[in-house]
Amino acid sequence: MTLRAFVGGAAFAAGTVALGCAAIAADLPPPVAKAPVAPVAYAPEAIYSWTGFYIGGNAGAGFAGSTWSDPFTGANNRFNSGAGFLGGGQIGANYQFNRLVVGVEGDFDWTGLGSAASNADSIGNTINTKTNSTSTITGRVGAAFDRLLVYGKGGVAFAQDNSGFTDLAGNSASTTFLRTGWTAGAGLEYGITKNLSAKIEYDYLAIGSQPLNLTTPTTALYTSSASLNVQEIKAGINFRFSGP
After folding, report:
1. How many distinct structural domains can be found in the chain?
2. What angle do CA 153, 46, 145 make, to 5 degrees?
């Protein structure tokens, strides 16, 4: 066999094999495409919700001021209490529209805001007022920054106080009644968990003038009128019955 014949035969064989492989490949089923891998979905972080009813407690300190009209000169005798403890509770409800949070709240606090015993009118009768409790019914409007709520409040205020005087002979008389006025305040509240929040708040209560008619064995009638204002700062905890 010559070299030319050998090369030709090899080329022929190689072509035959190639054609056979191509034919086999054509008969094979197409490769199965891999299923696309779904992208990992991350749930967006929940926005804190202030909507819902709540109930809670508070404690803090207060300062009261009282003004009595002087029955002898017509002037006003003003005196203040020292700072005193207060504590109580609150109940309310909020509704949130985007960042805007509106709501209503009622609260009640026992107080120990008593005036000094040395306050006196123009002739030396001792006069004093002790604030036993305060309560308010208010509307609240605030702005929510996720877990932080900044709010203001305003509405009607009530105060129960005891007002009395001691005359120059040492005889005393007093009266206790519930006063009505208005209140305004502001505060910050922070959501600790979806159902628990903490707040700090300042409130001013302005209580209108109340007639006083007091008698002692040596004073036929002591006629005056007294107004009251109370400033309170308190911290509190609220449990909310709904959340994000």
Report:
1. 1
2. 30
Identify whether 8 is part of a domain: no
Q: Are 75 and 62 in contact (CB under 8 A)?
A: no
Sorting pLDDT into bands at 50, 70 and 90, what band is 32? low
- Which residues are within 8 A (CB) of 34 and not within 5 positions of it... i.e. 6 or more apart? none
Is pLDDT at 87 greater than 80 in this prediction?
yes
| Paired tokens of 190 | 């922070």
Percent helix, strand and coil across the chain, each to the nearest 5: 10, 65, 25
Residue 19 predicted with pLDDT over 50: no
Q: Is residue 39 part of a domain?
A: no
Model-level pTM? Answer: 0.78
pLDDT of residue 83: 83
CATH number at residue 233: 2.40.160.20
Residue 28 lies in a domain: no
* Cα(128)–Cα(165) distance, integer angstroms: 6
Give the domain extent around 108: 52-240
